[in-house]
Amino acid sequence: MKAVRFHRYGDIDVLGVEDVEPRPLGPRDVLVRVRAAGINPGEAKIRTGALHERFPATFPSGQGSDLAGTVAATGAAVTGWAPGDPVLGWSWERSSHAEYVVVPHDQLVRKPDGIPWTAAGALYVAGSTAWAAVTAVDARAGETVVVSGATGGVGTIAVQLLRLRRAHVVAIASPRHRDWLESQGATLVHYGSGVTERLRRAIEDDGAGTAHAFLDFHGGDYPRIALSLGVPPRRVNTLDYGVAAALGARAQDSAEGTSRAVLTELAELTAAGRIEVPISRTHPLGEVRAAFTHLEHDHPLGKVVLLPPNAVPHSIEKNGA
Ligand SMILES: NC(=O)c1ccc[n+]([C@@H]2O[C@H](COP(=O)([O-])OP(=O)(O)OC[C@H]3O[C@@H](n4cnc5c(N)ncnc54)[C@H](OP(=O)(O)O)[C@@H]3O)[C@@H](O)[C@H]2O)c1
């Protein structure tokens, strides 16, 4: 099968698509034919070596956590899944940017009919992270919640989960995605010089007049800005773990949002049209470099998704799965 590989840390040009075999199917594993697989900034950080201390790569490295597809084969001890079942789920083996992926049977949920493959394949990392952050600050109806990175993969879902809780959202983003934010009922505040003053004004203009919680999906100064706006530390969630520890803020991330229950809930909300997963672009798997160029340089709204071709790997044909 075709799968993304890189053989050393580096820029986008170290990424390639190679012919490899999926790893062997264990008794509790499921082989999924991938129909769509989202890409994430964390994968770019791993590829450059920026996360070497925390998440080292071993070479050659595969890539990818998000996945949606159909079950192609099941291990001998798997009872809940059968070939042809539509699923979405996650890999913890950096392996979903491929035509086929092997995952433990309990890292999959059934794909509801109403959710497109692209959205299903982009939901896990961004959705679980957004869900964890919204849950961490316990946003409630009528409250004002500030979100940085509001128009990225994570932020777009977090904004909608907050709106489902009937919170008012003040979204820090660039003006290029104003229309989408306004369609969600959020108030846009531009990032850049003077952002704290603009936030103060937007919060004062808001009905409640105070910021109750802050979800930081960008890092930098935002956790400290949150405190300067009067948000209590326990209602600030950031993905910068060091800053969270220093300030007494929360740092709930995709790990806390990872469960079949959460992914099922997010998929059902999407299938019911209660949240959308904005897809900025899809790229064939073979265009993995172009996909990461778009993600890393073009400020896309929402997600970028890889679409593998549907060749059948030799080993699978041979075994008749
Ligand atoms: N630890 C975890 O479990 C975990 C999981 C998922 C993501 N993450 C991290 O969370 C971050 C967001 O992920 P993502 O997938 O949403 O990324 P993304 O899709 O690339 O979105 C990044 C967002 O940041 C915004 N942004 C850029 N400069 C900004 C600034 N100065 N102030 C405020 N916002 C700014 C962008 O807005 P414009 O497009 O308008 O410029 C965009 O909305 C990344 O750092 C990622 O690595 C961590």
UniProtKB/TrEMBL annotation:
Enzyme Commission no: 1.-.-.-
Annotated PANTHER family: PROTEIN AST1-RELATED (PTHR43482)
Keyword check for Oxidoreductase: yes
CDD domains named in the record: MDR_like_2
Gene Ontology molecular-function annotations: oxidoreductase activity
Positions of the Enoyl reductase (ER) domain: 10-306
SUPFAM superfamilies according to UniProt: GroES-like, NAD(P)-binding Rossmann-fold domains
Keywords: Oxidoreductase
Gene3D superfamilies, alphabetized: Medium-chain alcohol dehydrogenases, catalytic domain, NAD(P)-binding Rossmann-like Domain
Organism domain of life: Bacteria
InterPro entries, A to Z: ADH-like_N, ER, GroES-like_sf, Lipid_raft_assoc_Zn_ADH, NAD(P)-bd_dom_sf
Organism: Streptomyces andamanensis
Protein name listed in UniProt: NADP-dependent oxidoreductase
Keyword Mitochondrion: no
Enzyme kind, highest EC tier: oxidoreductase
